[in-house]
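Dear Dr. H.,

I hope your travels went smoothly. While you were away I took the liberty of generating a structure for the chain from your last submission, since the lab meeting agenda had it listed for discussion. I wanted you to have the full record in hand beforehand rather than looking at slides cold. The sequence, exactly as received, is reproduced here:
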Amino acid sequence: MAFDFSKFKIPGLFSQKSEPITVIRQEQQADEKISFRRYGFIQAGMMKGRTEGLRICLDAVYEQHMADMERDVNKQEELRRPFKVTLQELAGLDEGLKSQVNMYDTELIPARKNRIEELRKEITEIRKNPEHYTGVHVGKAGFYIGVFILLLLSVYLFIFYSSASYSAFFKEFKVDDIVVTKAIFDANAIGNSLKDGVTELIFILTIPFVFIGLGYLIHKFQEGKGLAKYAKIAALLIITFIFDAIIAYEITEKIYNIKKENDLAGNLPDFSVSLAFNSVGFWLVIFAGFVVYLIWGFVFDFVMEAHSKLDIVKVNIKTKQEQIHALEEEIQQYQKTITDLKIAIEKNNIELKKLKQVIDGTIIHPKAVKEALSQFMVGWYAWLAEGREYNRSEHNRIYEDFLVGKISTIESVLNPN
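The corresponding predicted structure, in token form, is as follows:
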């Protein structure tokens, strides 16, 4: 390939008339053509080695090299090939990124939004018709009524057992205490026990919870499996009955002894178990305590069963609410991913534009430019070396500055990143 430098004549810097010069690379052979090295030698002589001329000649060599590369279609196509491959890769990447955004926008996010709406409708239906979802009848009214009755029975048992325990174990009976109901329910039981000591007070205040605890154990044993649970329940009922019987026996015995002490005829025998079983007061205490205790246990079982049914509804609703929360978090994550993908698409489009600009323009290989300028400088220095005084460092600086500037420009175009 020939390099025509005739259009780069420098008026005023040549010591003699400049003629058009055609230059080729060293490996090309033709009588009328010269190399970059020879051209550098000639130009140095024409400009007397002046640095002002060096700058202009370097620019002329660079521009001529650019023009020749632009005319070399085959070479340009060869240089563009890797950029076109990269362009195709980025175009494919762009399609993939856009496809992902479309998938999130049209498939994943809408599907989760639809599922959230379905779950919310299911929650509404569960509250309206819980039996359809839980398979069991749930009555809130029955539950609250049961709780109310249970509270009243608990208060009754507390009053009964605290008062009856005080009467059975601590109270000193008088003549006017022979009425059974008055003996059982002592309005001053707590106040009198406090006067007798803190220990006595604590005893009569805590003993009702012994019976309530036994009732709770019966309920828990009912949740078990096998025949063993029935034996445990029977044992607890027997223990409770015996405890109630002891209280009833103590109260009726004290009442009987008061009557005996005030019997003028002195015909009353000593109090015994048989007399206790034949006493109406004994069974009144049993029914006022043990039977009410059994009723409390049945009501407690009903309340707990109703609560478990309501709990099934609550758990079902809570599970669906947790599913909704998880789906909402997925949507937020998908939206964040979409934002990241759009940023990646934008960056990719910038790279695509830069590559298209490189492909549409003239591609110059930095190594070829450096080689051409280097050969020119060899010729330039050869002329200066023929016994002439010159500042080589200044020429080197001009050459290096020019080379660095041009190479940086070329590389910034070829490597926009």
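Two observations you may find useful: The radius of gyration is 55 Å. The chain has a mean pLDDT of 77.

With kind regards,
E. W.
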